[in-house]
Amino acid sequence: MVGKSEYDTMKYVIKARIEIDGVVEKSDVVGAIFGQTEGLLGEELDLRELQKTGRIGRIRVNLETRGGKSTGTIIVPSSLDRIETAILAATLETVDRVGPCTARVTLEKIEDVREEKRKRIVERAVEILRKWEEEVVPESQEITEQVMRAVRTGELIRYGPEGLPAGPNIDDADTIIVVEGRADVINLLKHGFRNVIAVEGTNIPKTIIELSRKKNVIAFVDGDRGGELILKELLQVADIDYIARAPPGREVEELTRKEIVKALRSKLPVEQFTVERRKEELKKIQPVKVRVEEQKAVREEVKVKVPEQILRGIDEVRGKGEAIIYGNGFKVIKRTSVGELAETLQKLDNVRAIVFDGVITQRLVDVAGEKGVEYIIGAVRRGVTKCPVDLSVLTFEEVG
């Protein structure tokens, strides 16, 4: 790397890759660069003259030798203007020999040292503003809040081909927060959450779907019917890990920092959220006052929702290491061993249910979800953290 003193005086850094068909030393490469470019561009752009006058820095070469060949990098600091620096970079690529060996030089990039300085200035300025806000006197609090709102709004970017409203840390963060609209993004930015992005409607953008496959995703939606619709669509097309909701009847865009933090801390894994929602739905259909016998009947009714022919399949596979695959009308379309179940499932269409004497894994749940399966019933469940909303994952004990 170029030393700090050279960065202080240089504007650009040329970085090139060199490949040599032979074993050479660093000094051989430097000598070849000076020798083969001498007189090529006249005195004004002669490397030796440029170095004497300080318009380029010391040429650095890093080499590695393997199998009788040498490869490495060439680094040239430059205080020339953009055009002259580009000419100099192109000149390096004309070097085709190092001593008796053939060589190839390829430009990798030209770094703008000033741009790096600008980034550091911006980062430091933001740090100063944040510290300044913490130390501000109470009488200036209202003014400070107005300034910080402007700063946060200034951090709003447009992300992806759809130009989705987002914070500046989407690419850098391992976890992102997906909200409904632009106002939600601005509110979270105002309170220091910079890893946030909006879907902007119930039609989930492709950018959100692709991000969900690479990052941990928290879906943070309003506590109303609109939030429910957004959440339902997200769970169907994106790989959501956690779900957080604003308090009932409230919107994310109007929450205070304390309310936002509380909602995010109370987030639920998708599988747990699905279970809790089913419990709530069950409560709604039960009478306000029921006898113990009636409560048992309600539980029995929930289990009976699994088709009877599937329940009979449990006894057929239990202890045998076998699997039964059901199609339309819950008719048996395939019997196979547990070891071949996943591969067999991928080859079949119109699968409605699976009963097998084995372990329900995340991989099997993922394949079943892609196939539109409604029921998976196995001996035990292990390592399943995410499950499609329309897929019931049960063990023998849960339906027995």
Protein architecture, described:
With 400 residues, the protein is an alpha/beta fold. Helix content is 43%, strand content 23%. It is built from 16 helices and 19 strands. It is flat and about 90 Å long. Mean pLDDT is 83; it is low at 285-304.
Question: What is the percentage of strand-forming residues?
Answer: 15-25%
Instruction: Report how far apart the termini are.
Output: 67 Å
Contiguous low-pLDDT stretches (5 residues minimum) are 285-304
Overall structural domain count: 3
| 3D shape | flat
What's the story with the biggest beta sheet?
Answer: 5 strands, antiparallel
Give the helix level as a range of percent: 40-55%
Level-1 CATH class name of the largest domain:
Alpha Beta
The gyration radius over C-alpha positions equals 32 Å
CATH topology annotation of the largest domain = Dna Topoisomerase Vi A Subunit, Chain: A, domain 2
Mean pLDDT: 83
